[in-house]
Amino acid sequence: MTVEIRDIRGRGVVPGRAEGEALVSHQTISGWGGIDPATGTIIERRHELFGVCFTGKVLVFPGAKGSSGWSGFFQATRLLGTAPLAMVFTTLSTKSALGAVVTRVPTISELAEDPVEIIHTGDRVIVDADHGIVTVHSTSLSPSAGRRPA
Fold this sequence. Notes:
two-stranded parallel sheet; globular
């Protein structure tokens, strides 16, 4: 098994450091009507990760979609203990920034390279938002991009 280690630099949004398994979505995520805060599961029927739980994972996705209620739903995941371990997203918006702040998990955005294209579900990821660095430990056993996690 070959392990490739790669650093991607970006902008820390919420400070902190977390390490865990990546869960990657190529689609934006809706808060209101898109996630179940009680279970940390994506419930948007047409979403590529429909039925998948993000609790305790490093959630890697393009950004937030929908209304300003996005942040409230992600805050609820923190209050209910179902939040992602950390977040890495491509596009920083007021919705995604506020959502990250109220979720209180290490978050990085505006990366030098598109994390959705580089990181694969199952990769081991270190999110060091204090220094704006995402370290990706890819293995040959990681699922291919776009493949639904088991």
